[in-house]
Amino acid sequence: MCVLSFPFILAMAFFKDAALLVMALSFFFFNFALQPMINTLTARYTTLKMRATAFGIYFFAAFGIGSMAASFAGFIAQNFGLSWVFVGLSVSNLILIALSLLLTRVRNPLEAME
Hints:
The chain is mainly α. It contains 6 helices and no strands. Helices cover 83% and strands 0% of the residues. It is globular and about 50 Å long.
C-alpha cells in the first residue's frame, strides 16, 4: 500500500487546485486502506501472549509519535514552504517501503539473529 500511495503523496508537492485534490483523495484512499490490513497482519503474525504488546507498540508509534507530525510539518511549511511537507512525507513513505522490503527478506526471526 505504501508503494501505491507514494506517487500520489509526491505529486501533492507539485500539483495545485483540482489536481491536488485528486492526488490527496487518492493518497488518502490508499493510506486509510492500510489500517485494516495492519490490524489483521498484527493479529495473524503475533502469538497470543505477545499480541497486546504488539498492538501497544503499533498504537504508540502511530498515535504517540505520529501526533508530533503536525508540529514537524508546520515547522517545515513555515521555513521551507508547503510543498516541502509533501516531499518530506514521500521520503518517509520511501523509508517505509525500504523497511517493508527488508522485513520480507526475514522469513524466520530466529534465522535473522544468527
